[in-house]
Design goal:
227 residues, four-stranded antiparallel β-sheet
Length: 227
Amino acid sequence: MDFSQYHHCISTMPLFQSLSVEQIELIQAQIIERDFATGDLIHREGDEADTLYLVQKGQIRMFRLATSGKEQHLRVLEAGDFVGVPALFAHRHYEYFVEATEETTVCCIQRETFKDLLLSNPQIALELLSVLSERLEDSEQQTTWITSESVQSRLANYLLEEAARQATTTITLTSTKKNIASFLGMSPESFSRGLGKLTRAGLVKQPKPNRLEILDQTGLKQLTYQA
Protein backbone atom coordinates (compact mmCIF):
# COMPACT_ATOMS: atom_id res chain seq x y z
CA MET A 1 0.00 0.00 0.00
CA ASP A 2 1.23 3.53 -0.80
CA PHE A 3 1.32 5.64 2.35
CA SER A 4 2.90 8.69 0.73
CA GLN A 5 -0.36 10.61 1.04
CA TYR A 6 -0.26 10.29 4.84
CA HIS A 7 1.81 12.75 6.83
CA HIS A 8 3.20 10.33 9.38
CA CYS A 9 6.85 10.18 10.32
CA ILE A 10 7.15 6.45 9.60
CA SER A 11 4.68 6.20 6.71
CA THR A 12 7.47 6.63 4.14
CA MET A 13 9.74 4.02 5.74
CA PRO A 14 10.09 0.84 3.62
CA LEU A 15 10.33 -1.13 6.86
CA PHE A 16 6.67 -0.39 7.67
CA GLN A 17 5.05 -0.71 4.24
CA SER A 18 3.28 -3.94 5.27
CA LEU A 19 1.26 -2.12 7.96
CA SER A 20 -2.24 -0.74 7.63
CA VAL A 21 -2.97 2.96 7.99
CA GLU A 22 -4.55 2.25 11.39
CA GLN A 23 -1.40 0.48 12.59
CA ILE A 24 0.76 3.34 11.32
CA GLU A 25 -1.34 5.82 13.27
CA LEU A 26 -1.11 3.78 16.49
CA ILE A 27 2.69 3.56 16.24
CA GLN A 28 3.01 7.20 15.25
CA ALA A 29 1.31 8.21 18.50
CA GLN A 30 4.24 6.67 20.41
CA ILE A 31 7.01 8.16 18.28
CA ILE A 32 9.10 11.23 19.01
CA GLU A 33 10.37 13.24 16.04
CA ARG A 34 13.69 15.01 16.50
CA ASP A 35 15.55 17.45 14.27
CA PHE A 36 19.35 17.62 14.07
CA ALA A 37 21.61 20.19 12.47
CA THR A 38 24.70 19.28 10.47
CA GLY A 39 27.37 17.98 12.83
CA ASP A 40 25.00 17.19 15.69
CA LEU A 41 25.55 13.83 17.42
CA ILE A 42 22.38 11.74 17.58
CA HIS A 43 24.06 9.49 20.10
CA ARG A 44 27.56 8.81 21.38
CA GLU A 45 29.51 5.64 21.89
CA GLY A 46 28.68 4.38 25.37
CA ASP A 47 25.15 5.84 25.51
CA GLU A 48 22.42 3.47 26.62
CA ALA A 49 20.92 1.72 23.59
CA ASP A 50 17.17 1.87 24.10
CA THR A 51 15.93 3.58 20.93
CA LEU A 52 15.48 2.75 17.26
CA TYR A 53 16.25 5.75 15.04
CA LEU A 54 14.53 5.97 11.64
CA VAL A 55 15.80 8.57 9.20
CA GLN A 56 12.83 10.50 7.84
CA LYS A 57 14.89 13.02 5.90
CA GLY A 58 18.52 14.04 5.68
CA GLN A 59 21.64 11.92 6.15
CA ILE A 60 23.57 10.44 9.08
CA ARG A 61 26.83 8.56 9.43
CA MET A 62 28.02 5.88 11.82
CA PHE A 63 31.64 5.87 13.01
CA ARG A 64 33.93 4.61 15.75
CA LEU A 65 36.90 6.25 17.42
CA ALA A 66 40.09 4.29 17.99
CA THR A 67 42.05 4.82 21.21
CA SER A 68 44.39 6.99 19.14
CA GLY A 69 41.45 9.25 18.27
CA LYS A 70 41.37 8.14 14.64
CA GLU A 71 37.91 7.74 13.15
CA GLN A 72 36.73 4.57 11.46
CA HIS A 73 33.85 5.35 9.14
CA LEU A 74 31.24 2.58 9.19
CA ARG A 75 28.20 3.54 7.14
CA VAL A 76 26.12 6.37 5.69
CA LEU A 77 22.35 6.20 6.16
CA GLU A 78 19.72 8.23 4.34
CA ALA A 79 15.94 8.70 4.34
CA GLY A 80 14.22 5.33 4.87
CA ASP A 81 17.20 3.79 6.69
CA PHE A 82 17.42 3.02 10.39
CA VAL A 83 20.01 2.46 13.07
CA GLY A 84 19.98 0.88 16.53
CA VAL A 85 18.19 -2.44 15.93
CA PRO A 86 20.68 -4.92 17.51
CA ALA A 87 20.73 -2.95 20.74
CA LEU A 88 16.93 -3.15 21.08
CA PHE A 89 16.98 -6.85 21.94
CA ALA A 90 19.20 -6.56 25.01
CA HIS A 91 20.21 -3.92 27.52
CA ARG A 92 23.41 -2.71 25.91
CA HIS A 93 25.29 0.48 25.11
CA TYR A 94 26.03 1.85 21.67
CA GLU A 95 29.43 0.86 20.29
CA TYR A 96 29.62 3.71 17.77
CA PHE A 97 28.76 7.36 17.23
CA VAL A 98 25.94 8.55 14.97
CA GLU A 99 26.23 12.05 13.50
CA ALA A 100 23.98 14.12 11.25
CA THR A 101 25.89 15.08 8.09
CA GLU A 102 23.15 17.46 6.96
CA GLU A 103 19.85 18.83 8.29
CA THR A 104 18.14 15.64 9.47
CA THR A 105 14.85 14.50 10.99
CA VAL A 106 14.63 11.15 12.74
CA CYS A 107 11.74 9.18 14.24
CA CYS A 108 12.56 7.66 17.63
CA ILE A 109 10.90 4.43 18.82
CA GLN A 110 11.61 3.13 22.32
CA ARG A 111 12.76 -0.47 22.86
CA GLU A 112 9.59 -1.86 24.42
CA THR A 113 7.31 -0.23 21.84
CA PHE A 114 9.34 -1.70 19.01
CA LYS A 115 9.45 -5.18 20.56
CA ASP A 116 5.64 -5.15 20.83
CA LEU A 117 5.48 -4.07 17.20
CA LEU A 118 7.63 -7.01 16.10
CA LEU A 119 5.52 -9.51 18.05
CA SER A 120 2.31 -8.32 16.41
CA ASN A 121 3.79 -7.84 12.90
CA PRO A 122 6.14 -10.71 11.89
CA GLN A 123 6.61 -9.21 8.41
CA ILE A 124 8.56 -6.32 9.94
CA ALA A 125 10.85 -8.82 11.66
CA LEU A 126 11.54 -10.45 8.28
CA GLU A 127 12.33 -7.07 6.72
CA LEU A 128 14.70 -6.36 9.59
CA LEU A 129 16.51 -9.65 9.15
CA SER A 130 16.96 -8.95 5.46
CA VAL A 131 18.49 -5.52 6.07
CA LEU A 132 20.69 -6.73 8.94
CA SER A 133 21.92 -9.62 6.79
CA GLU A 134 23.00 -7.17 4.09
CA ARG A 135 24.77 -5.00 6.66
CA LEU A 136 26.59 -8.02 8.09
CA GLU A 137 27.75 -8.96 4.61
CA ASP A 138 29.00 -5.39 4.08
CA SER A 139 30.90 -5.51 7.38
CA GLU A 140 32.52 -8.80 6.46
CA GLN A 141 33.52 -7.39 3.08
CA GLN A 142 34.97 -4.31 4.78
CA THR A 143 37.07 -6.51 7.09
CA THR A 144 38.36 -8.50 4.11
CA TRP A 145 39.33 -5.34 2.23
CA ILE A 146 41.17 -3.82 5.18
CA THR A 147 43.10 -6.92 6.24
CA SER A 148 44.05 -8.64 3.02
CA GLU A 149 44.12 -6.29 0.04
CA SER A 150 46.25 -3.48 -1.38
CA VAL A 151 45.04 0.11 -1.67
CA GLN A 152 44.40 -0.31 -5.40
CA SER A 153 42.53 -3.56 -4.86
CA ARG A 154 40.34 -2.02 -2.14
CA LEU A 155 39.51 0.94 -4.34
CA ALA A 156 38.71 -1.28 -7.32
CA ASN A 157 36.48 -3.53 -5.21
CA TYR A 158 34.68 -0.56 -3.70
CA LEU A 159 33.99 1.05 -7.07
CA LEU A 160 32.71 -2.19 -8.58
CA GLU A 161 30.47 -2.85 -5.56
CA GLU A 162 29.04 0.68 -5.76
CA ALA A 163 28.47 0.35 -9.51
CA ALA A 164 26.52 -2.85 -8.91
CA ARG A 165 24.56 -1.34 -6.01
CA GLN A 166 23.68 1.83 -7.94
CA ALA A 167 23.14 -0.10 -11.20
CA THR A 168 25.27 2.34 -13.20
CA THR A 169 28.91 2.84 -14.16
CA THR A 170 28.63 6.52 -13.19
CA ILE A 171 28.83 6.33 -9.41
CA THR A 172 27.54 8.99 -7.03
CA LEU A 173 29.73 9.33 -3.96
CA THR A 174 27.23 9.52 -1.09
CA SER A 175 29.88 10.41 1.47
CA THR A 176 33.05 12.48 1.64
CA LYS A 177 36.31 11.06 0.34
CA LYS A 178 37.63 11.21 3.91
CA ASN A 179 34.80 8.96 5.11
CA ILE A 180 35.15 6.54 2.20
CA ALA A 181 38.90 6.33 2.83
CA SER A 182 38.22 5.57 6.51
CA PHE A 183 35.69 2.90 5.53
CA LEU A 184 38.33 1.28 3.30
CA GLY A 185 40.99 1.42 6.01
CA MET A 186 43.28 3.97 4.36
CA SER A 187 44.23 7.59 4.80
CA PRO A 188 42.60 10.32 2.68
CA GLU A 189 45.99 10.87 1.04
CA SER A 190 46.24 7.18 0.06
CA PHE A 191 42.70 7.33 -1.29
CA SER A 192 43.50 10.37 -3.45
CA ARG A 193 46.76 8.85 -4.71
CA GLY A 194 45.03 5.57 -5.51
CA LEU A 195 42.23 7.33 -7.34
CA GLY A 196 44.81 9.33 -9.28
CA LYS A 197 46.52 6.11 -10.39
CA LEU A 198 43.22 4.65 -11.57
CA THR A 199 42.50 7.85 -13.49
CA ARG A 200 45.92 7.93 -15.16
CA ALA A 201 45.51 4.27 -16.08
CA GLY A 202 42.30 5.13 -17.92
CA LEU A 203 40.16 2.96 -15.65
CA VAL A 204 38.01 5.77 -14.23
CA LYS A 205 37.39 9.48 -14.63
CA GLN A 206 35.84 12.05 -12.32
CA PRO A 207 33.51 14.42 -14.22
CA LYS A 208 32.28 16.03 -10.99
CA PRO A 209 33.61 16.12 -7.38
CA ASN A 210 30.96 13.65 -6.19
CA ARG A 211 30.85 11.52 -9.35
CA LEU A 212 33.13 8.77 -10.63
CA GLU A 213 32.70 7.10 -14.00
CA ILE A 214 34.08 3.62 -14.56
CA LEU A 215 35.67 3.40 -18.01
CA ASP A 216 37.16 -0.09 -17.83
CA GLN A 217 35.37 -2.62 -15.63
CA THR A 218 37.61 -5.46 -16.80
CA GLY A 219 40.70 -3.54 -15.76
CA LEU A 220 39.21 -2.85 -12.33
CA LYS A 221 38.30 -6.50 -11.87
CA GLN A 222 41.90 -7.48 -12.59
CA LEU A 223 43.05 -5.13 -9.82
CA THR A 224 40.76 -6.83 -7.30
CA TYR A 225 43.01 -9.91 -7.43
CA GLN A 226 46.06 -7.96 -6.28
CA ALA A 227 47.05 -8.65 -2.67
